[in-house]
Structures are given as C-alpha cells and as structure tokens.
From TrEMBL:
<dbReference type="GO" id="GO:0006397">
    <property type="term" value="P:mRNA processing"/>
</dbReference>
<dbReference type="InterPro" id="IPR035979">
    <property type="entry name" value="RBD_domain_sf"/>
</dbReference>
<feature type="region of interest" description="Disordered">
    <location>
        <begin position="254"/>
        <end position="319"/>
    </location>
</feature>
<dbReference type="InterPro" id="IPR034158">
    <property type="entry name" value="SF3B4_RRM1"/>
</dbReference>
<comment type="similarity">
    <text>Belongs to the SF3B4 family.</text>
</comment>
<keyword id="KW-0747">Spliceosome</keyword>
<feature type="domain" description="RRM">
    <location>
        <begin position="6"/>
        <end position="84"/>
    </location>
</feature>
<feature type="compositionally biased region" description="Polar residues">
    <location>
        <begin position="307"/>
        <end position="319"/>
    </location>
</feature>
<dbReference type="InterPro" id="IPR000504">
    <property type="entry name" value="RRM_dom"/>
</dbReference>
<dbReference type="GO" id="GO:0071011">
    <property type="term" value="C:precatalytic spliceosome"/>
</dbReference>
<dbReference type="InterPro" id="IPR052084">
    <property type="entry name" value="SF3B4_spliceosome_assoc"/>
</dbReference>
<dbReference type="InterPro" id="IPR034159">
    <property type="entry name" value="SF3B4_RRM2"/>
</dbReference>
<feature type="domain" description="RRM">
    <location>
        <begin position="93"/>
        <end position="172"/>
    </location>
</feature>
<feature type="compositionally biased region" description="Low complexity">
    <location>
        <begin position="282"/>
        <end position="298"/>
    </location>
</feature>
<dbReference type="Pfam" id="PF00076">
    <property type="entry name" value="RRM_1"/>
</dbReference>
<dbReference type="GO" id="GO:0005686">
    <property type="term" value="C:U2 snRNP"/>
</dbReference>
<dbReference type="InterPro" id="IPR012677">
    <property type="entry name" value="Nucleotide-bd_a/b_plait_sf"/>
</dbReference>
Length: 319
C-alpha cells in the first residue's frame, strides 16, 4: 500500500478495531482498495492508527466529512488525509535501507522496523514501474528521531532474508548532499506540536491497568543480585569442553611464561580456577620447583614437554 491523495489516515483506534471492521466502516464512503493497520512485531497488537485507500480522492474527502470523530468502542477516531497528516508529522526521521533481497516486501519491512517506533506510513520499496520488481532499496519515515536512531543502530549490517542490509539516514530532497538527522532537524522536531500525538509505543500506556499482566513486586529484603526463593539463575549454554559460551578455554599456568620461570600462583586463601588441580598442602608453602642445569625441553602446544621431540629431535608443530 502506498500513500496517495485517495488514502486517509485513521487515528485514535481502540485495541478491538480490526482491518475488517475498518473496511466495513469506510465502505460507507466509497469503494475501498486496501486497509492497513500497522502492528507491533513483538506484541502483534496495533499501535492505534491505520490507513484506508479509496479508488478516488473524492471518496477519501467524503470519508473525512462523514466519519471523522465518530466513536468506535467509545473512542472518537480521527480521519484526515494521509498525505497532509504525514506532512505535518514528518520531522525528518527518514531512513534509507539498501541491499534488500528481492523477496523482501513492504509487510516484512514494516513488521521488522515498527519494533523501534511509530512509522508514519507504510515502508516504500522502490520498484521498477514496468515489472514491479524491487530495485533493492527502500525508505521508512519515523515519527521521532529516537525511533530512527534505534533502527539504524540495531539493523545496520544485520541480515534480512538472505542479505546484510545497510541502514542510514536518507538524503534530503531540499538540500543536495545532506542527510536527514541533523541537529537543526532534531531541534525543530522537539518543538513540533504534533509530536505529542505520535509518541512511539504508547499503546499500553492507554490501557486499563487491570488488563495488564501482573508483575510480582521485588522483595525489599533481597540484596542486589539475590533471587527470590525458588528461582534459579540462568546458566549460559556450555561448549563441548564444558566452558560457558564466550569464555576462552583456560590455559595451563606454565603457558605464556619464559622457560624456567615458575607459574603464577594465586594469593593464599584463594581457590584455584576451574580445571586447575588444587595445591597440595605442604606447611603453607608450595613444594620447591625443579631447577634445570640446562635449558628445558621444548614446550608443546599441550603445555607439557614433548618427550618425542626431545628424543628424536623432530618438531611437534603442524606443518
């Protein structure tokens, strides 16, 4: 769905409003081409607004006259031209998405990028006018720079379908070579009176508190880092060697030290790290380290002397 002069914006929608309900309602004004109510990717709930496209601009104008401010489920809806509404709300938080896979469509883009904030209109994928095939890039307009900043930070370089996409601020049409997101645009956006109407992710803020899931309150007797009774901390997944993901395997104490030097020892009273055998008691001191009258044998990759190499003179390293 693309924004045209025959498209109306419908705002202040109750959570119970569906695409089918909007379709039936706006049929009273004229033939409906499409209805789109953006939904949050995580909650699958709509964000309180939608778009209805008619066959003609006259039908869209008529819908504004007869349906604006009527109540759906007790809430008066706002109906106005989508193009005019976008113009008043567009603060310049427009991003460019490149290197798109040919299979990526507008719905997938919206489902992916609506998680970062309110999108003013359906994503616009540039297509060949004759074949309708994607040219590999698209544009999205957010209602705030917080949303566009979050989308760029999270999605730039990430895979969407089979390709790693590039996400950045789009170039401005009125200033050659300049991108959106400048300090001047952000200052103007902060003073935009329409921004209060389009704050991202306000759906739950307007709900009755009794309908929200109950979250158990924290026990004031618990110290920071403690878990309530009955809860177990989540352990990271283990590698085949028995080490948590992200932790490199521990090396024997002798690795990384010059030949002949004793390994570094932990301070007294500190237990050895996992995988290192405990130090046998010997009157509070470690047994004396062997002395060498000659340089020690070659240290193998396993951290121990390579007896074969010392006997045969052959190297144990891979060739």
């Amino acid at each position: 769905m693309t924004i045209s002069y025959a498209t109306v914006y419908v705002g202040n929608l109750d959570e119970q409003v569906t695409d089918a309900l909007l379709w039936e309602l706006f049929l009273q004004a004229g033939p409906v081409v499409s209805v789109h109510i953006p939904k949050d990717r995580l909650t699958l709930l709509h964000q309180g607004y939608g778009f209805v496209e008619f066959l003609s601009e006259e039908d869209a104008d008529y819908a504004m006259k007869i349906l604006n401010m009527i109540k759906l489920f007790g809430k008066p809806i706002r109906v106005n031209k989508a193009s005019a509404d976008k113009k008043s709300l567009d603060v310049g938080a427009n991003i460019f998405i490149g290197n798109l896979d040919s299979e990526v469509d507008e719905k997938l883009l919206h489902d992916t990028f609506s998680a970062f904030g309110v999108i003013l209109q359906p994503p616009k994928i540039m297509r060949d006018p004759e074949t309708g095939l994607s040219k590999g890039y698209a544009f999205i307009s957010y209602a705030s720079f917080d949303a566009s900043d979050a989308a760029i930070e999270a999605m730039n370089g990430r895979y969407l379908s089979t390709k790693a996409i590039s996400v950045s601020y789009a170039y401005r049409k009125d200033a050659k070579g300049e991108r959106h997101g400048s300090a001047q645009e952000r200052m103007i956006a902060a003073q935009n009176p329409h921004m209060a109407q389009m704050k991202p992710h306000q759906f739950f803020a307007d709900q009755d508190a009794s309908k929200l899931p109950v979250v158990p309150s924290a026990d004031p007797s618990l110290l920071p880092g403690m878990l309530p009774h009955g809860l177990q901390p989540l352990a990271p997944p283990l590698l085949p060697l028995g080490l948590p993901v992200g932790m490199p395997p521990r090396m024997p104490p002798s690795i990384g030290l010059p030949p002949g030097l004793p390994p570094r020892l932990p301070p007294p009273g500190v237990p050895p790290p996992p995988g290192v055998p405990p130090i046998p008691p010997s009157g509070g001191a470690h047994p004396p380290f062997p002395t060498h009258s000659s340089p020690p044998s070659t240290i193998g990759t396993s951290g121990f002397r390579d007896m074969n190499s010392s006997i045969t003179g052959e190297s144990s390293s891979e060739t």
